[in-house]
Amino acid sequence: MNHQLDDRLTVHELRLLPAEEPSPPPRLTRTEWHALSAAEQSRYDAARRAHHTQLVVSSPIIRQTVTRGRSLLTANRRAESGRRRFLEISGPADTGKSVAALELERALWRTDLVRNPVRGLDNRITTQSITAPPKADLHRIVLEIARSLYPPEFVREDDSLDKLAKPPLHILNSQHTSMVIIDRAERIAPTAAAAHEALTWLTDRLPAATFA
Length: 212
Prior knowledge:
The protein has helices at residues 11-15, 30-34, 38-53, 60-78, 97-115, 138-149, 161-174, 192-205, and strands at 127-131, 179-183, 210-211. By secondary structure, the chain is mainly alpha-helical. The protein has one domain (11-20, 54-211). Helix 4 (60-78) packs across helix 5 (97-115).
């Protein structure tokens, strides 16, 4: 991926997503709009603007990513730990890969909400996303996962890998996290083999999660 998920939602915001995509405000005719009071016109216009700013054009890469992500989750639930696959969202720069990852994350949270309608009352974490820093190794990836779950004062960068990984991985396992999204995964250095090794290490310790 080529852009950080700067607009990714927090876990709290994802929990508040409605089970279905929100419907747009009703479209008023010009006569109906003029019949409103000035305050009602202002509220109506604001609601229309807010709705349109949240719309995402459903591009082929978004549709393909959501479909592949859901299919891979189903396949990985049935697979042995060492045989589970990763989801790679690849393509040229500026083709919407990060947006596709964000839409996949939203889709999984919505599906989980339909299946578990009282989920908003608990601390379930359906998905977790991070951005790989430049020249990241496994330790840095685990560090970013820890930082995404804990306040900075609770994360010690100089801890050993096992000590650093234990608390966040315990949280993700206990909350049945189904997918971990790593944006800019190509930054995991020094080679593609190193990235695969890092993802395999994490997969072995997060048996319920699929990595993208």
